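Example record

One chain of 563 residues, shown exactly as stored in the release files.
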Amino acid sequence: MEKILKLIGKSILALSLLFYSCQSLDEINENPNGVAPTIANPNMLMPTIMVGVGQNLMNLGYQDIAGVMQHTQKDGWYGGHNHYEWNLQDWGHWYALLRNNQFMIQRAEETGSDFHKAVGLAMKPLIFGMITDLWGDAPYSKALQGNNDDLEYQFPEFDSQEMIYKGILEDLRTASELFGQNPATGIIPEYDLYFGGNVSGWLKFTNSLRLRYYMRLSEKLPDFAKSGIEEVYTKGNLITSAADDVMMDYIGASSADSWPSASAFDAGSNFRRLKPCNTLLDPMLETEDPRVSVWFRPVHCPWVEDRSLHVAMDPFIRKNGVLQSGVLSLDDAVYVQEIAAGNVFTRHYNPDLLGKNLDTRKFVGLPPGHLQPSAHNENPTPGQLLENQHVSQLADVYRLSKHNLLKARIISAAEVNFILAEAALKGWAVGDAAGHYNEGIRASLDAWGVGESYDDFVKHPYIAYNGTQRQIIEQKWIASWTNATEAWFDFKRTGYPALTPGPASPEPVLPVRFNYGNNEVNFNNAQVEKAIQRLEVTPYEKGRGANNQWSKPWLLQGTGKPW
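Predicted structure tokens for this chain:
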């Protein structure tokens, strides 16, 4: 992982040397820390694009979209996470990556590097795919041309989702063809943060993305999706084992390049607020899913049913069975240290006197959309001063700045296998649905280091393949842990898993898009208004206007999905 730090230093040095080697006395007033665009090396552009994409995906799939898809809930600062209280959301960070990527493609063409051109043509669809999946119609054909003074490029129109998806797939086809020619010139492997210059890895990545976006269109353009997926499957070169998962490491040197909940850079606040959601945790516990202990920590202080107790519940915690007078709870760091030393903490309750049962399991989650999430399961210290000792936290690994499990996951073998399972279930010529489904399970277990549990796990009655789309998508949803954005896109397309909001949700259904942001509303209003008019306004508009998170873009219109 340290190679990224070294890479950044080398990039700065190389760019500086490149500039000075071409400098003349006439150029003495130019920026000494810059590099002329005409001599930029495309290798040096790759890290910025790859890191930006990885961080953007992680910041969605591990944060608020994980709340939407009920992987996690927060017990503090939870409005956007638990209840999707979203304002207008700009997409400038995505288009900034696209501009850098477009420059890399340009320099690749000027230097004759088919490898870097293919990389650009693979990353461009991924970024545009995220934009249209998140917002809907967007500037595409006339985007990235800010140097053109014509108003149609300064204020670009929003292309339809259909056009964008088809353009994405065309670029991916071109990238696949280029990688298929095994271009090997001009590659500096250490600048390629995903594959280290391995062309075969890029080919598998590109073809696997093609499967993703063809399946995205399967409800709206089923014949187009069918022929595309069958073609890609027949040609092969796909990500099918966890060893081929496309991921980005974290450096762990600062908050900007560390895992998003690294406690070293925020005193643990973000980490302590994130909790497993019962929607995800309950079925995993029911099936004895081996990933539970990788992702979640047992509760610090479990409840113990005790009908001999003369009060409804212990007023204080117990340490190794002994009531600790005056101690309602302990600080997280103290709990971790004490439990590591072998101490056991509990609180007893009498359900006959309390009048209700509490969650006494080893792992306890938060229900979705809770009105007071910090108080769940009779937490004696609600609010944000102490963590909820009666609800599980995420596993300790998620406190760290870097770790071999802490990676931004771009696309995985689990996702690819589940796509093929769904396609096979539809009757498309891509092999056996059960086989692909089982390989999706295997790939996810392998990715999280519990592959040895596969043989027993896949035989569980709830896990064994039953030939339904619902089961495939539900297992794909579980496997999308830390990459919940893909699960959201599947949910919008299929309605699975059948998630319902909690009582604090502003609407009784989940959102389906981001709202167009202030930059477009303020500076490209005429074009964004046309796009807004093409949205399908639903009964959940409630006076918000069409530009809201419950309006349906083209991809969902007429499908009856997800609600």
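Notes: Confidence is low (pLDDT under 50) at residues 1-30.
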